[in-house]
Amino acid sequence: xxxxxxxxxxxxxxxxxxxxxxxxxxxxxxxxxxxxxxxxxxxxxxxxxxxxxxxxxxxxxxxxxxxxxxxxxxxxxxxxxxxxxxxxxxxxxxxxxxxxxxxxxxxxxxxxxxxxxxxxxxxxxxxxxxxxxxxxxxxxxxxxxxxxxxxxxxxxxxxxxxxxxxxxxxxxxxxxxxxxxxxxxxxxxxxxxxxxxxxxxxxxxxxxxxxxxxxxxxxxxxxxxxxxxxxxxxxxxxxxxxxxxxxxxxxxxxxxxxxxxxxxxxxxxxxxxxxxxxxxxxxxxxxxxxxxxxxxxxxxxxxxxxxxxxxxxxxxxxxxxxxxxxxxxxxxxxxxxxxxx
Amino acid sequence: xxxxxxxxxxxxxxxxxxxxxxxxxxxxxxxxxxxxxxxxxxxxxxxxxxxxxxxxxxxxxxxxxxxxxxxxxxxxxxxxxxxxxxxxxxxxxxxxxxxxxxxxxxxxxxxxxxxxxxxxxxxxxxxxxxxxxxxxxxxxxxxxxxxxxxxxxxxxxxxxxxxxxxxxxxxxxxxxxxxxxxxxxxxxxxxxxxxxxxxxxxxxxxxxxxxxxxxxxxxxxxxxxxxxxxxxxxxxxxxxxxxxxxxxxxxxxxxxxxxxxxxxxxxxxxxxxxxxxxxxxxxxxxxxxxxxxxxxxxxxxxxxxxxxxxxxxxxxxxxxxxxx
Lengths: 341, 324
Hints:
The structure holds 2 protein chains of 2 kinds.
Chain A: H1 2-21, E1 25-31, H2 32-40, H3 43-46, E2 51-58, H4 66-76, E3 81-83, H5 97-102, E4 107-109, H6 113-122, E5 127-132, H7 137-145, E6 149-154, H8 157-165, E7 173-176, H9 178-184, E8 196-199, H10 203-218, E9 224-227, H11 238-247, E10 248-255, E11 259-268, H12 275-278, H13 280-284, H14 296-300, H15 332-338
Parallel strand pairs in A: 1-2, 1-7, 3-4, 3-5, 5-6, 7-8, 8-9
Antiparallel strand pairs in A: 10-11
Helix pairs in contact in A: 1-10, 7-11
Chain B: H1 15-24, E1 40-44, E2 49-58, E3 64-65, E4 68-69, H2 70-84, E5 88-99, H3 104-121, E6 125-133, E7 141-151, E8 164-167, H4 173-183, H5 197-203, E9 209-211, H6 217-229, E10 232-236, H7 244-253, E11 267-270, H8 272-285, E12 290-296, E13 301-304, E14 309-311
Parallel strand pairs in B: 5-6, 10-13
Antiparallel strand pairs in B: 1-2, 2-7, 3-4, 5-7, 8-11, 8-12, 9-11, 10-12, 13-14
Helix pairs in contact in B: 2-3
């Protein structure tokens, strides 16, 4: 019951502060984990009309390009591949890794570095499909250290934030991702000139972040507040950062929906362990992705709500997803679908 | 996309499986009824008694998990399916397919488990079959059990608005104990797997419907009940019994605890008059048992959260933890 009182206090405070704003403000939650909590508790409906929460691109599988998936499917037809379970259902141009697996390709679902090392014993040529942000990249770096061949589709969050601010949506504040921030710390956000709050994943943490952001926006304060201090330190996890620097180089990278963002991707430094180089003959044959009616790109940029996509709930469902956002538990469309919105 | 092959999601107990079964479309049913329930039923004798029949096939990774092994769930699963219909289980069949090279000692342990529960519950294994397949043709072991029972009164009465929903104990413990081996975390939780003979018998005459939340968890069975009886359900989230550890691990993995399997719990529906006694009786077996919600007159399954209401939807796809 105490929790309910606390939550209602935040909502009350947001409501009274919002009156002072005199305009509609848009706050983007970057992380899919945040979107999940927001939808689960119907937080958007509880906020005053002039506070708009929109979902950002923080779902690891959602931002992976169709081309990368097509390449991995082709590689998987030739050599064993290991990746996260979330990746299996994401549609490429014609099929998914799950389809390829059901048709006989050797694809293993893993959740830890140990599992990949174990797999390597019987599958020495196994390729790890590394996806996700700064959170998952350190594990991939560890695998590179252990001489596992990697296809990297890893992305960096801060460059995407800058790209979003240059885009078509006016964003007044960011709720920064909790887990990513445990790795990168809060320092990289200081370069971005907009109010930001790093938040954890409970309803209380998110409402508190919104409440602080509304205050900062009202006062025009472009500062970063760490609202998740039990997990996030200013300097982040320096060991993990060191690993990333040692095994990856920062490159321009393609994001589903957002296009190429300068210096937003991590590429494997060692050519011998880089699957894109090792299997360049296979990748060379992969045609450019087909254009579909799927509007995941606009969902990821916060331009439209899932329900505004013509495929949502019709051709595109969690059982038969047409777009990546309908696959992952962190994807905006899958979340909206699950909570009946 | 290739739609003509079976994928893992077809076996996850959610939407995909239901659609597949519908599509297979067995139309000839003879005199059997309730084929969409936990067990099918067949009226026998002059007293309108019902023969109740069910089958289930068990594959689980790992086969040994905290607090039990595949033998526990193979026996209890089928017994519980009979019990949920209101039947007294008479006997079970046991079919085992084993991979060549499987350690005899492990097989003995699994069979020993089944024997022990069989003796304890006085439900015999009456027929069986064993096959061995070449190494690599299956993953260690698959067990099928079928069971028959007799019911004087089927637990298939249509609930009405105002009826209460009661859960017999904390949810998700089996799944969280099992997943600890898959995702490498330590847990003090053990499987909840057990035959629910005593629990059901103590409340059988006071309840209208009972269902055990195995695959798909309470989300799946509440939607099943809502669909089958064309009623709505309102559940108060704060009342759902859940151990702190289940809550925390679910949060950490980003999985929905309402979709997690239990192997020794059931959800039942009783009139408002009976609900209090049912709750009290069930608390004798498990202190976490309690009333969690009620039947409503729309046709949705709604969860009342601390902040507002939301739909509790039918699970779909496989349970996949978040990676970010």
